[in-house]
Amino acid sequence: MKYLIRSVKYFFYFAFLTTAIVFVLIFIGAVNGDINDIFEGGYNALWKMGLFFAVVAAAYPKLGFVVRDVAVDRDWSEVTGIAKDYFKNRRYQLESENTDTLTFIRRSTAERLSRMYEDRITLSKTDTGFRMEGLRKDVLLAASGLEHTLNRD
Question: What is d(CA 64, CA 60) in angstroms, rounded to the nearest whole number?
Answer without folding.
Answer: 5
